[in-house]
Specification:
The structure is a homodimer. Chain A is α/β, with parallel strands linked by helices. Chain A folds into 3 domains: about 1-45, no CATH class; about 55-150 and about 285-310, Response regulator (Rossmann fold, 3-Layer(aba) Sandwich), CATH 3.40.50.2300; about 155-285 and about 320-330, 3-Layer(aba) Sandwich (Rossmann fold). Helix content of chain A is about 40%, strand content about 15%. Chain A contains 12 helices and 12 strands. Chain A has a 6-stranded parallel sheet. Chain A has a 6-stranded mixed sheet with strand order 7-6-8-9-10-12, with helices on both faces. In chain A, helix 4 packs parallel to helix 12. The structure holds a DNA duplex. Chains A, B: Keywords: DNA-binding, Transcription, Transcription regulation. Chains A, B: It holds the Pfam family LacI.
Chain lengths: ~325, ~325
DNA sequence: CTGAAAGCGCTTACAG
DNA sequence: CTGAAAGCGCTTACAG
């Protein structure tokens, strides 16, 4: 080790590089080593270090859907809380898939300092034989497996129901997501329950579902609308903003006035929802916070702390825009 | 090492695990070791292996913009070509940023088998002191730094110009991206040149630019349209599909008939462009191929081969849809 | 406070 | 064809 040529043993260099000098290295040596490190641009070889320590400085983030503006925010939050002490690396799988058992084994062979898993299912967690620090994101109902950070989508769903009821809507349609993720069941159930309590009816016949895809949602809406219209539906709630974009698209084609003839709302509050015309009313989910908190929890675990609150839930809030509220406006087209 | 308990030395196990048995291990031992490996679910510890070999099985993909449907396709291609011999990990940076020098040093300390860098700039490559296998993606003009796989956006731009000229357009506007990336200069230059050759005018006054953002593009178009209209502009070409979505959005609000009163086209052919209404005419870029070829080139480098063709260029092609061609149709709204 | 030494889990000449 | 041994770059008891 070249750095040791600046006066001391490799052991001392290691101590300094790891900040474990307290009461073990003289001030004199500390500064001498620091200078040598700076001069040589030395960076601790993480492979050697990992082998000796039994663990690396890599944190692996596993997620089924990385190409998603919502997820980009989550990542930002994770980065912020993890800082530069850890290398955040994204596990890349086929779109919409979680890594398979042998992928996981290979990832474990990297000896990551910790694992962050977004939107897992029970089967995945069952297989996950990893023993290291683990935090789940957006895994409602799976709290038994590991500390997790969840989103309280139900509260936002109730706010949305109240908003629509307050705007005078009485018959509402629901455009669901067909993926079996727990969050969608929660969104639907919470909304339906609150709607019923507020005197709005969501006829089972007026509930449909598609994949999370603008085109699919658009087609499904186009096919369903005549019937919904006949049934007196004046508002449609979509399980995701992506579904809602499909509805907005078809509604424009059909010349439907929004929100006068049809109010539209979604969940997620994706960036595009703020700039679309009309703006899309949506249940805002704190993506960056989700990442941030998950990162903090994982740090705690890595540092061997016991988490005071292993289960965290973040609030969702309704953002009202032009798609349900004429007054909410948004920018209004050509000037 | 537990696996060696199945009869032989660790050296033999290592040989089998690495497939270096040719003429060095007896058939007998090979199968005995294989069985032991299977029984114990043994996976080579990549940290120990990396240290001994001096290189890991990690391939790091560095990119400024991971939350982009186009990029998701690129990743798919990379995965396919890299297979399971390498761990593909995404370096996560702030949105739109490439990693800084010390990030890179830390990544290098992981001893990656290779590096894939998407859309870099010269400054980044200057700093990149990494010595290992390196392949650039979408880095026109930077071929001097490393083997690269590029996109021939110019040919698509020329096709687009021919298509618009053939549809009778004479005055065209251009909505550019303001980020300095080389690809945008190429898109613009190629289109303008071909347009001029075909007798279409793109008045400098009818060229504007915004960030890659639907809202920003929508506003800019809204502000510019009155003048464009007065100037007789009948088509607008956008540097990205994202820009075009903004134009389509505002055009709908204004009640502009598309493509009759205004034809709109973009670059990238994002998934949404196929399902929007009208569908968006766009220059298709082979994202998955880009990733696939880059992965193949990197593999070659890692395996010590000399690349027969270190510089690859993939063709772009025009996809004509309803936004420029009434006949191209697309699905047509409520049935 | 300091350094020599063992060991992390592998791979690879090397001698047999 | 096979195994003992050295070594990859670090960290961490341990003895001083």
């Amino acid at each position: 080790m070249v750095a040791s040529r600046a006066g001391v043993s490799t052991a001392t260099v290691s101590l300094v590089a790891n900040g474990k000098t307290h009461g073990r290295v003289s001030e004199d040596n500390i500064s001498r080593v620091r200078q040598a490190i700076a001069e040589l641009g030395y960076v601790v070889d993480s492979v050697g270090s990992s082998l000796a320590k039994g663990v690396s400085s890599i944190v692996i983030l596993v997620a089924p859907d990385i190409s998603n503006p919502f997820f980009a925010k989550v990542i930002e939050g994770v980065r912020e809380s993890l800082g530069s002490d850890f290398q955040l690396l994204l596990s890349v799988t086929e779109a919409g898939e979680l890594p398979r058992a042998d992928d996981i084994r290979r990832l474990s062979a990297l000896r990551p300092a910790g694992l962050l898993v977004d939107a897992p299912d029970a089967a995945f967690l069952e297989n996950l034989s990893s023993t290291g620090p683990l935090v789940l994101l957006d895994a409602p109902g799976l709290e038994a497996y590991a500390p997790s950070v969840n989103l309280d989508v139900a509260s936002g769903a109730r706010e949305l129901a109240a908003h629509l009821a307050g705007s005078g809507h009485r018959r509402v349609a629901y455009l669901d997501s067909v993926t079996g993720t727990a969050t969608f069941a929660i969104r639907r159930t919470a909304f339906l329950q609150a709607a019923a309590a507020l005197g709005m009816s969501v006829d089972p016949a007026n509930r449909i579902g598609t994949t999370i895809d603008v085109g699919a949602a658009a087609e499904a809406f186009a096919a369903a609308w005549p019937q919904w219209q006949q049934a007196g539906v004046s508002a449609v709630v979509c399980a995701t903003d992506t579904h809602a974009y499909g509805v907005l698209q078809e509604a424009r084609v059909a010349g439907l006035r929004i929100p006068a003839e049809l109010a539209v709302a979604g969940f997620d509050d994706l960036p595009y929802s703020a700039t679309s015309n009309p703006g899309l009313t949506s249940v805002h989910l704190p993506a960056a916070q989700l990442g941030l908190k998950a990162g903090e929890q994982l740090r705690g675990l890595i540092e061997g702390r016991t988490l005071e609150r292993p289960q965290l839930t973040l609030e969702s809030t309704l953002v009202v825009r032009g798609s349900t509220d004429r007054a909410a406006g948004g920018h209004s087209g050509l000037r």
